[in-house]
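Teaching assistant's notes for section 4

Start the section by putting this record on the projector. Ask students to predict, before seeing the second block, whether GIY-YIG domain-containing protein will look compact or extended. Collect guesses on the board.
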Amino acid sequence: MIDRFTNWVKWEDRNDLEGLNYPGIYCIAVSGKSLTKFSFIPELEYIGMTNSKGGLKNRLNQFGATIRMKSINHGGADRFLYQYEDFEVIKDNIYVAICSFKCDTKNPTPKDLRIMGEVAKCEYDCWAIYIENNGRYPKFNDMSNSLKYSKTKR
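Reveal the predicted structure now:
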């Protein structure tokens, strides 16, 4: 599965990724060192998925709007924002990698629905691999230990 992910790219370059119009998995990492080849590294701080009609691009835009405090409408990004309140300070250290699944979410056939089910399973598989490698959930997927900005600091 790991070979299905794109390389890590800087957050600001996310729109250059192939497959953004499809559903899939996205991983967010924060690192002061340059990241390239994707792996389930400790710096990976959030694993998310989407099966929405807007695809990965829309979901990453929701994440981005939340971490820039334009609108807080993404739970994982709300937890990210609790730790990293100042986007300008952290923006150059944010990386993203995606794994897209080509299918039609607007008028799905039974085949498309099965692919969308694979997306949901893939997210759980990614969490399992991350936990096997790092002994814990990614920081902002751990809802019991990661506070939301909107619930505490507003």
